[in-house]
Design brief:
The chain has about 300 residues and is of the alpha/beta class. The chain is built from 9 helices and 12 strands. The strands form 3 sheets. The protein has a 5-stranded mixed beta sheet with strand order 3-2-1-4-11. Strands 5, 6, 7, 10 and 12 form a 5-stranded mixed beta sheet that branches. Helix 6 packs parallel to helix 7, helix 7 runs antiparallel to helix 8 and helix 7 runs parallel beside helix 9. InterPro entries: Glyco_trans_2-like, Nucleotide-diphossugar_trans.
Length: about 300
């Protein structure tokens, strides 16, 4: 027996109860025509999820016994929705986001105008600095195998984040699909534990001749590192990042595999050349900053490619 809903939202939680509850509250306040059905996938959090079912009226929770990664957890939610729900649209949404009223309808609207659109996404601003863009539409640089984000870390501009348009990259933070497109593409690659799963999916969509559309009419606020609650935590490819080895290895391996899987010929050769140069320079820069463990990390990373 299928339950009918216009929109299903997939959230992945890992020790982020406060963020998840705030996200659900923003969905409740979104003034959508029909309240979305939420599938919440918990990746073996050590903290409980008290009263979530009572807090949000239509939700299904999948509780994993281990942390299976961001991409696979989203795929779990997608598969459950396909098996148990009759829906028109599906949204992959980070749990540390806040949805603004009208955003769901803004994400749905482009599908009604172009049946070659497989994914829609929207303007994403920092929750801590609401006038600064985190994602304003993105384009994949095929030589580097990496996306560039319009107006990143800047106020939105008319030509950039405030301009609705077709793009080649959508962040996995906010990705909406039709039922048909999510069935055709099946979500993220299960082999990507974390990082670049959105890059790979966008490449796959483009390879199949479908389109990605960015709308500036919807807005999501992203906490990014909101769970740190004001503490200064070093993230990214910074030499002081305590999780640098995990981030570097997963990001560089997945970046390479995403490109190798979806491009070929001269384009692939050019990417591999540029990748090798940028890989070496990044290792060298981190060593200069004091990370003398980078040669070992680099060898381990290359061994996984």
């Amino acid at each position: 027996m299928f339950e009918h809903t216009k929109l299903v939202v997939i959230l992945v939680n890992y020790n982020g109860y406060s963020d998840t509850k705030s996200c659900l509250q923003s969905i409740l306040n979104s003034h959508s025509d029909d309240l979305p059905f939420v599938v919440l996938v918990d990746n073996a959090s050590s903290e409980p999820l008290p009263n979530i079912e009572e807090f949000y009226p239509i939700i299904h929770i999948i509780r994993n016994s281990s942390n299976i990664g961001f991409g696979r957890a989203n795929n779990q939610g997608i598969n459950w929705a396909n098996e148990h729900l009759q829906f028109s649209y599906l949204l992959l949404l980070n749990n540390d986001t806040l949805v603004q009223p009208g955003s769901f309808n803004a994400l749905i609207k482009p599908f009604e105008q172009d049946d070659r659109i497989a994914i829609t996404t929207c303007k994403t601003m920092y929750e801590g600095k609401r006038d600064i863009v985190w994602y304003g539409g993105g384009e994949i640089n095929f030589k580097r195998g990496w996306p560039s984000i319009q107006d990143f870390n800047k106020p939105a501009s008319l030509q950039g984040a405030n301009n609705s348009r077709y793009v080649s990259f959508a962040s996995g933070c906010v990705m909406m699909f039709t039922k048909q497109s999510i069935k055709e593409f099946g979500g993220f690659d299960d082999n990507f534990f974390m990082y670049c799963e959105d890059l790979e999916l966008c490449l796959r969509v483009l390879k199949m001749g479908y389109k990605i559309y960015y709308t500036s009419e919807g807005t999501i606020y992203h906490k990014v590192q909101g769970s740190t609650k004001g503490k200064s935590v070093v993230t990214g490819m910074n030499h002081n990042n305590p999780n640098l080895e995990f981030l570097f290895t997963n990001m560089k391996v997945n970046q390479f595999k995403a490109m190798e899987k979806n491009i070929e010929g001269l384009s692939l050769l050019i990417f591999k050349f540029v990748y090798s140069i940028e890989f070496s320079l990044k290792v060298l820069k981190l060593m200069i900053k004091g990370r003398m463990d980078m040669p070992i990390i680099a060898i381990k990373t290359l061994g996984k490619i």
